[in-house]
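Cross-posting from the chemistry board since nobody answered there.

I work mostly on the small-molecule side, so proteins are not my area. We synthesized zinc ion and want a rough idea of how it might sit in this target. Sequence and SMILES are below. Is it possible to get a predicted 3D structure of the two together?
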Amino acid sequence: MQAWSKISKMPAPAIRKMQNEQLTKMLSEDLAVRHPHYRELFKEKNINPADIKGVEDLDKLPFTEKKDIVAPEDNPEHPKKFVLDVPGEDELKPKKKGFSLFGKKDTGPDPSDYSFFTLYFTAGRTDKPVPIEYTHYDLNNLKEAGARAFDILDLSRDDTLINAFTYAPNVYFWQMFYSTIGIGSTALQTGGGKVLGMEKILKAMDSMEAPAMAIAPGYCRFALHTLEHFGFSAENLERIILGIDYTPMEAVDRISKLMEAVGAKENRVQRIYFISEAKSGWAECAPGFGYHTNPDHVLIEIVDPDSGEVKGEGEPGEVVITHLDAKGTTFLRYKTGDIATGGLATEPCPNCKRTVPRIMGDIERKSLYFDLKGKDGTVSFNANELRKVMFAREDVLLWYAEINSGDPEDTLKVVVKGVSGTDEQALQKDLQEKLHDQFSIPVAVELSSLDAVANTIGMEKFITEQTILDKRNS
Ligand SMILES: [Zn+2]
């Protein structure tokens, strides 16, 4: 990765030129020669990497999908096929000496850039978690991506931060960890609810007088609602950075209002969008202005999720990533399964003026688009929309939804626990009506206890809560 001061101001045509150069280099020097999967694939499909002159030729290359990278039962080593081989001795040229050191570097690939350092895993929401290998080179890029995200968020070393992202071998926690270390701010790496628990996280926020907290959206709502119960104050809290789980604008609004309600000093809410496979997360300068990506690290395409056709500026579609500057596990045209409802914007950000490509709108999970059995044929159900509805409500504390098979049609059961002091019967009735109007499937809303809902969604057990449960095949 290059200097952020340069990249963040680079005009779109210069970014494209840089990406063309990086892509052809990545293809010829790494993917075609030392990437077991792509080396084989190019041979099998008769693809000559030299035919790819730049980004506009990318559609000549096939996509990589989740199913390609998940290890089959009988071959746990399979994800290794996506890891670049360490260059052999024969590729190394003699090291330069004397004055020639000042000339252009031509010592060949440096094996230490390719040597294994650590593994972080994908979230494993829809499939088994996939190990993503990082080398020292990648770790430096992760640190740089983290530093850039903090610059975009406008966080400085004066901002004491509570990192309440769940501790796990994943990019979410560790990018945040390295960002705070890099910037030199006072930070408490809580490990999230799974490690420290709600009470201690809130206590730390209060006693450290922390102005900033990084936390998953559902857990954040729960935290702000239970603050009073524990008797802690949010009077020094100025902002919350939401990440790990997809954060629709409804969640931003809800959290912002809740901050106001609990007496926070300010009610600024920002979002980070992490993709494990991209080996980094991207921040928004302010909600709605898009996730500011790193064009010298990862190339973003937005494509039609079904046909694969590359979409134009601002058109919604699936986020596809290609590594331009990575070692270890690397991907070419990897379909993330995430839908960007506002597509990709390449004009400068109207808010912060940075010129990097931005992923716009909300991120929806393709795996939450369901085809259900209806009375008169298939009915589409977008559970991402249900998440938005549930985030927007002031009276919902915790919830989950079950999709059940039925005859003559599939049904939806939504189980809720209301915010303390809510008339739960009224909540049940109102929610029942609203969901019935919005979704064309039979909906039943049920009330349940805090413990029962928390248990079902895996609060403080999973990396984030599992609120949409497809029970049709169980
Ligand atoms: Zn911006």
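Reply from a structural biologist on the board:
Welcome over. Reading the output above for you: Residues 368-470 form a domain with the GMP Synthetase; Chain A, domain 3 fold (CATH 3.30.300.30). The chain has a mean pLDDT of 93. Happy to explain the token format if needed.
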